[in-house]
Amino acid sequence: MIKVRHPSELGHLVQDGVRLDCHFAFRDYVDRAPLHWGRLRVLNRVELEADAAFRLDHESAIEIVTLVLDGVVAALVDGLGDSLLKPGDCHVVSAGEGVALATWKAGGAPASLLQLWLLPEEEGGEPEIGLCRNGDRFGHQHALLASGFPADDPEETDQGRSGDPLPLKASARVLRLMLPAGGQAVVPTYADRCVYVLVAAGHVEILGHDADAGCGVAITGFETIILHAFEPSTLIVCDSD
Fold first, then answer.
1. How far, in Å, CA of 70 to CA of 72, rounded?
2. 239 vs 17, 146, 219, CA distance in Å?
3. Residue 69: CATH number of its domain
4. Distance between CA 135 and CA 148 in Å, rounded?
5. 142-147 and 166-167: which strand pairing?
6. Count of structural domains, the chain
7. What CA–CA distance (Å, rounded) separates 118 from 147?
8. pLDDT at 141 > cutoff 90
9. Phi and psi for 156 in degrees, rounded to 5?
10. Chain segment 146-184, per-residue pLDDT in tens
């Protein structure tokens, strides 16, 4: 099964200098909104005006993966410290038993980011954060940013500086693919997995279906995902059970 969701089908929320494009039900976007795809519960593109902030008052039992697209963003997580994020950086908040306040704030210029929320295998546990600076384990074009599979993570304890993926408590992988015009990527998976591809920029063909920037593509029932780029393209892929 393949379902292409175009930007016009998404939820669009605007408040206090923050714009959200929501692929799944989120806050006031609930009517006819899908609730999740596999363990992917939320996928939002967040556009921040200069000095604007996106805040979460309390979240628990969720893995929040943040990928910065443009600008500089300060990630402020109550009790877990602050991080300054730049384009290409990946930041993970494992909310565990609960995070009281989390904020993503733009600096003196606009910024944009993506957030993926994943449902963990088990609830509870101490909250944690992780940060990977422009991870490039698969080279410039393919980067495994975060994974819930121990086999993906060599025995490193350097907070992501080596380019190893950040750990997740969900059976999921988050990848970034950067393809030149005419480029191709092949992503192996399993037929019973739920794959969601976000076209962050560019124009691609995925298993015979066209998808432009802003589109989300829900896929299941395939063991191989083949992507062709018609122009330079950036894709975010979430593969979960």
1. 7
2. 31, 11, 9
3. 2.60.120.10
4. 16
5. parallel
6. 1
7. 11
8. no
9. -125, 150
10. 999 998 976 544 444 456 899 999 999 999 999 999 999
Bridge partners of residue 12, in order along the sequence: 21
Backbone phi, then psi, for 7, in 5-degree steps?
-55, -30
Q: Reduce the DSSP state of residue 203 to 3 states and report it.
A: strand
Query: 225, 196 in Cβ contact below 8 A?
Result: no
Burial of 224 per CB tally in 10 Å (0-12, 13-18, 19+): exposed
Would you state the structure tokens that stand for residue 147, as one six-digit string?
Answer: 């994974």
Helix (H) or strand (E) holding 78: none
- Phi first, then psi, for residue 84 (nearest 5°) are -100, 115
139 — pLDDT class (breaks 50, 70, 90): very low
Lookup result for tokens 């992917």: 40
Identity (one letter) of the amino acid at 74?
A
| CA torsion, ordered 43, 141, 206, 238, to nearest 10 deg | -30
Long-range contacts of 208-212 (CB under 8 A, 24+ apart): 209/2, 209/4, 210/4, 211/4, 212/6
Residues spanned by the domain of 77: 2-240
DSSP string, 18-70: EEEEESS-BTTB-TT----BTTEEEEEEEEE-TT-EEEES-B-S-EEEEEEEE
196: enclosing H helix or E strand: strand 194-201
